[in-house]
Amino acid sequence: MSKVALVVDDSMVIRKMVTMALKAMSFEVLDAPDGRRALEVAKGQNLALVITDLNMPVMTGLEFIHEFRADADHKFTPILFLTTETDEAMRNEARSAGATAWIVKPFHPDKLIAVIQKLGI
Amino acid sequence: MGEIHIDLDGLLDTFFEEAEEHLNTFETGLLELEATPEDHEVIGRIFRAAHSIKGASGTFGLGDITSFTHALETVLDRLRAREIAYSADVARALLASVDVLRGLVRAAREGATAPPEAVPVRALLEQFYRTAAAPKGETVAQPAISLQVGRKVRVRFAPKPDFMCRGMDPLAILRDVADCGEVESRTVDASAVPSLDDLDPESFYLSFVLVMRTERTDAEIAEAFAFVDDLCTFAIEAENDEAPQELIEPDAPVVGAAAGDARSAPTTFPKDGASPPKDAKTPAAASTIRVATEKVDKLLDLVSEIVIAQAMIVDATRAPGPDAETRLNDALQALDRHTRELQERVMSIRMVPLASVFGRLPRMVRDLAGTIGKKVQLVVEGEGTEIDKSMVEQLADPLTHLVRNAIDHGLEFPEQRAEQGKPAEGTVRIRAFHQGGNVVIEVGDDGKGLDSKQIRAKAERLGLVSPDEVLTDEQIHEFIFHAGFSTAAKVSDVSGRGVGMDVVKRNVEALKGSLSLSTEMGHGTQVRLRLPLTLAIVDGLAVRVGAQTFVVPLLSVLESFRPTPSQVRAVLGASEVIDIRGTSVPVIRLHELLDEPNAERDPSRALLCIVEANGTSLALLVDDVIGQAQFVVKSLEVNYRKVPSLMGATILGDGRVAMIIDVQSLARTDHRSRALATDSEVLIPVSEVA
User: Fold this and answer.
1) Tally of structural domains, chain A
2) CA-based nearest residue to B409, from B515, B482, B492, B519
3) Taking a contact as any Cβ pair under 8 Å apart, which residues of chain B between 13 and 52 contact chain A?
4) Would you say the ipTM is above 0.90?
5) Which pLDDT score is estimated for B135?
6) Cβ pair A38, A52 in contact under 8 A
């Protein structure tokens, strides 16, 4: 059975691009345009990886990471977040909320693949 | 895992499409911000829009867009953090940024050069945050760079051969262009004029190049070509002083941005002689439709159902048995149901909300109100109403013009309004909704309304009506749809350009729609557009006339019956009418109009089909009514040529071709002076003598 990943981003382009990369790595991909929807999609799923943007409408990435981690099913799911914020503060906040790693936008999907491979997911 | 490489090219279209959505969000947000400058939620939304464009553009290596959005995002970030105060200057710069970004996105999409405004606008943005970063207590300097510097542009204008036949005056257009600035040189290219033998005196062969200095934007100059964009090719390009003078090849299409999108379309002309994009119309977002995956999945489901139904039919016909007929009927019913649903769903994919057209209006209203000094509140309702995608794009021009008209001619100036006890701020209300199989769009204002006396006087002066003819107010108001009719005492540079309501009406009718007007002196005017949901399929009544079958759009059919011999009577020798419940309805003998010799000529042995369009009823004489069905409309213009009184053709179940009657154009033709056609191609001779 293939591993399932969840992509959360309000930008369709980014969702598609990340999905392309993940599918190339034989992931099965679920996606959501904001944190709230992502929580619904994630419910009951055995996720191997979550990739989320931080700056989103309805529910931000940070709020999403908090709530996602609070679910016992997702305690150890690796979370990669995408950010263009270069400031350390945002990054630290995301990490303390439970994110595993980050990738700075803009990025080429090849780089995303490299990061995922490096994390050994 | 081995080397995986991802190719991004396929995603570019998605990016462009999404960027456009973000820009619309951005623009709408900016306009909201004007009303509520402190609204954090709104600032957050526009920041996100800029942010998303920046993030994705970087991935695609679109450096121009990334660096511009970076400057923009920085300003917005400071605005969010209240480090920059919101001011009229900031607002102006942000709105200018939307235009620049649109230009940049378009440039990236078409491989054209970046809009020239990008540099000054970006410098302006940067100045905002640089000044904001200055130590507190220092006065914040007003940015010194103006958005538009007097620049040199070259405007190329090549009317198509039928330009003048369509009632347009190339000189008027050139004058409008020349009014945009100081003309330095004018060039006429007469190389396309053929030898006298080949010369068609009604065709237009010249093209023009104006080199001028202007402070207007490309979009503003392009306004001169509004309403003629499909009748000419034009291009506005930054003039490089040392660039060689090159003339337009009249045969080679010159790049032109469609006027509807002109505001956001800095036009460029390939400098290196590379072939211009094939489609002279703006291709923006026209090429793709975004469809929810579920919709596509449902289509697949339906197709498989149809395949099953088909298999059932084959089975029922191959294996006869006692229940074969029942099985066949069941299968046919299922097939019918699924086919209809499939059709509906496929059509629904083409439906898009009107919001995409309405979205452009607030900005236009804001700019226009500011220019002419009126206070305008724009109220938009029903922007979620869906209509066929191909129609949405063609609605932009007429709607823009109607709204301009309402503001320019309808609404009074604040002082005048105050005198009449009206609120200083005028209201323009746009409302869209579905009604039956139609979409209705209303554009109304609470301005001064139409002055019947003034219109009548003008109509008499123009010889459209004689002074002693008795006309109702409605009939008088109809004159404003007459070509070349403008009630403004002085043609303003805003909406009066000699082309006006007549063009709006023509555009709407080209979409098989109709237009009606209601007005009350002192209280305002409302124009109502009624449009079909789609142009592709029509619910129709098939009728027989002699050996031919015709289709009458069902929406216009009121009733059909066989008249008694005494019911139909001749009037003034030439025409016939039938009295229906006290009203005289003109009878139109379809067999004469359509030159069908084998038809029944005696009404009392045939049928009259009463149809209605634009408030006019007509009785069509037909041999028989066959039944109602849905017909796929095939364009005559594409496959043959435009034929008055026919809206298209369709293919019947037995493979024959049937013509679809255009009731509106029949109703429009003055029935009093309807003459009989002798040539089958001239269906309704235009021989109107008022």
Assistant:
1) 1
2) B492
3) 14-15, 18, 45, 48, 51-52
4) no
5) 43
6) yes
